[in-house]
Amino acid sequence: MKNNTWNRREFIVKPILWAGAAQVISKAESLLANPVDGTAGAAILQRTLGKTGITLPVVSMGVMNADIPGLLRRAYQLGIRHFDTAAGYQQGRNEEMVGNVIKEMAVRDKVVISTKQPSHNFPSHPAEAKQRFIDGVEKSLRRLQMDHVDILYHHAVDSVEDAAAEGPLNALESLKKDGKTRFIGISTHRTTDVLNEAIRLKAFDVALVMLNYTMAQDSAMLATIERAAKTGMGIVAMKTQAGGTVRPDPNLPKELPAVSQTALLKWALHHEFVTTAIPGFSTYEHLEQDFSVAWSLAYTKEEKEFLADNSFAEAAEFCRQCGECTNDCPQQVAIPTLMRSHMYAVQYRNEGLAQNILMSAAPGRGLDACVACKSCPAICRNSVQISRKIAELKTLSAN
Amino acid sequence: MKIKSSIHARLALIVILLACAHAQSSRLRNGNSIHAPGQPASFLRDPLPDKAVAQGAAAVYTPDSLYQYIDGGADIYLLYDFKKLLHQDFKSGALDLTADIYEMSNPEDAFGIYASERSANYKFIAIGAEGYRDQGILNFFADRYYVKLSGSGANVDALLDRFARMLSARIGGARTLPPVFARLPRDHRVLHSEQYVKKDPLGHRFLAPAYVVSYGEGKTESKLVVSIASDPQGAKSRADQLARHFKLSGKSSPAPELGENGMRGENSFEGRVIARTRGSYVIALFNPTGNGAEMLKSAAQSLP
User: Fold this and answer.
1) Which among A37, A63, A67 is the top mutation candidate for probing chain B, defined by the most B β-carbons within 10 Å of its own β-carbon?
2) Whole-angstrom Cα distance, residue A95 to residue A143?
3) Of A238, A301, B30, B57, which sits 20 to 30 A from A155 (CA to CA)?
4) Domain carrying residue B231
5) Residues A112 and A150 in one domain
6) Do A93 and B118 touch (CB under 8 A)?
7) For residue B157, what are the contacts with CB-CB under 8 A and spacing of at least 6?
8) A2 is a domain residue
9) A247 interfacial to chain B (CB closer than 8 Å)
10) Domain that holds residue A200
11) Residue A185: inside a domain, yes or no?
């Protein structure tokens, strides 16, 4: 494997239609039902969440990482109107905190609250699963001190089977009918498969999906999200900053620049089918930084330069070595091993180590075992482009 | 003679090797863990309370795979230097029990993650260093382990209790909260409010890591933050950043009467704050009550 200077792929940004996509609310004709404090002369970009009719600023708050009441208060002050939590975050304490702050500020009727209920390890019997789901949501409502939420998601649905599972589906419909939630949604990390199923089921009002710059080449996924939006499903984007660039993953070779935060968020929001994003900021600094995007999606010079440099996309597309993809591969290729080898070959430019790792693959499961299927069936929940990386590795190995 | 000694030495060596191999094999046959003492798998060895029987093989999750089990909830575990999770389901008669044993880097991290999920409303029990139960769950931490038990079935709480005590005894090790909490003021402390925050304490990146405790007087809840810098210069830098934050978002002024690098601040979303440094520490009191200055002084003096 030679140290080739091989051509980096060109990043092709989808045509930006944001000027026509976002509804710019001017100060004079403010359509916000609840004027934002301290926004004299300002305008926040808003979009409508599918067929729900809910209009939201394009930047919302994923509360997951923040057990900080002051941060929620400040987020509301700045203009955020949608707060996303989940039953599983801090074992329910996150919901408690959200509930306490919303109640203290007396703004329940001015905000959109979403929470999520998982169904992992639920009984297989649909009626039992339905009841378990409903019981879980009732606990959430108690913690939130609310009689209903605005969006209730079936949390972390990562298979087509789970998306269609009768128990949770029946529970969601029942809870909506009973007024415990205004709308029902599905959250997933396996966007293409699960969202296609959600489209087929016609059961969900909203979908919470991962969308970030590292997925720019995943045309199938982007097309699926767009298709879902066209059916009237509201699209909320998570992981827009690729899992947290301010807390660099140890796999990343270097700390990413501050400009990456707004650049990545803007990139996600340039997709007109996304209503709002829920970045999980946990400091006042990042709150202000992220919400600055709600005033304008135009890239700064620095943001353009950052996005034009593909090294981030390559670095952030990291394999977590979970091995889930291996079962998808008909040849049982040792994909995690190949991904590690790719990382050392491409990002760290350490050919020797990359080669050693390649050779450590089990016999018959290494690079040669990959037959380059017409459509690679191996799917990565962290959106690693497996087939592309294996192709690159083969090219490097051949030289 | 020399030849005989040599033969005897070789025979002795062979005997020793055979004895070791037998012992290893014996452990495997008996189903005992071959992990070193203190490893999570060894905590779930037989005998188990109420003749509980493991259902299937245990699952082990690492930092790379934890999200497969708890999705986005994994982030905070990684923050507290999570090492490994052993997940095992059990059955005892008609009762089901799940044991999740999280191995963290050290007792302080185990406390940190335990406290992040703890609500003051739980029913607390004396298991491990501290524990609590709620409907069908019992969680506690001991040494560098955070143990989460859940169960279903009639009277499962009693089984959870016995399981927890068994695990606590097997884990052994440290049985206390981080020592700093014993030094901080006790009057009006909200029970079970202590936290060890490794990232962005109260929304301020520069204050990490920090110990946080809540105090309640009437309807006012104050938060005492002890931020640990690497040295006095680092502490001053943190105090300066705190002052700058409040200056930009509200108002801030020096307060030398509070002590070293003393400051006061206020804004519309955090309320009021008084703070000072002492050596490598920044001590801040958010939403202080009338005797806030005294509490700040007392806290500063108590630190090592």
Assistant:
1) A67
2) 6
3) B57
4) 180-302
5) yes
6) yes
7) B133, B136, B138, B151
8) no
9) yes
10) 18-312
11) yes
What pLDDT score does A111 carry? 98
The DSSP secondary structure of A375-396, one letter per residue, reads S-----TT---HHHHHHHHHHH
* Residue B37 in tokens: 């003492």
Query: Residue B66 belongs to what H/E stretch?
Result: none
Bond before B47 cis per omega within 30 degrees: yes
pTM: 0.78
Which CATH number belongs to the domain containing residue A109 in this structure? 3.20.20.100
Write down the ipTM of this complex. 0.81
What's the CATH code of the domain at B209? Answer: 3.40.1000.20
Q: Which of B171, B199, B230 is the last residue of a domain?
A: B171
Amino acid symbol at B231: D
* Residues A274 and A362 occupy one common structural domain: no
Q: What tokens appear for A8 in the block?
A: 């980096």
Could B200 and A155 be called an inter-chain contact, meaning their C-beta atoms sit closer than 8 Å?
A: no
Cα–Cα dist B257/B241, whole Å: 19
Number of domains comprising chain A? 2
Q: Are residues A96 and A234 in the same domain?
A: yes
> Going residue by residue through chain A (399 aa), what tens digit of pLDDT does each one get?
433 332 333 333 333 333 333 433 332 222 223 334 444 456 999 999 999 999 999 999 999 877 899 999 999 999 999 999 999 888 899 999 999 999 999 999 999 999 999 997 788 899 999 999 999 999 999 999 999 999 999 998 988 999 999 999 999 999 999 999 999 999 998 888 899 999 999 999 999 998 988 888 788 889 999 999 999 999 999 989 865 433 334 444 445 677 888 999 999 999 999 999 999 999 999 999 999 999 999 999 999 999 888 666 666 666 656 677 888 899 989 898 888 788 667 655 567 667 777 877 888 899 999 998 877 888 886 668 888 889 888 888 877
CB contact under 8 A, A320 and B67: yes
CB pairs under 8 A between A and B: 79
> Of the residues A288, A312, A336, which one is the last residue of a structural domain?
A312
Is the domain of A226 the same as that of A357?
A: no
- Chain A nearest C-alpha distance from B40 (Å): 21
Give the one of B69, B116, B249 whose C-beta lies nearest to A67's C-beta. Answer: B116
Q: With an 8 Å Cβ cutoff, is B238 touching chain A?
A: no
Query: Which residue does chain B place closest to A91, by CA atoms?
Result: B117
User: Which residue of B lies nearest to A286 if distances are taken between CA atoms?
Assistant: B203
Closest Cα in chain B, distance from residue A68 (Å): 6
A193 and A117 within one domain: yes
Contact B264, B274 (CB under 8 A): yes
Contact A23, A280 (CB under 8 A): no
Residue type, A97: M
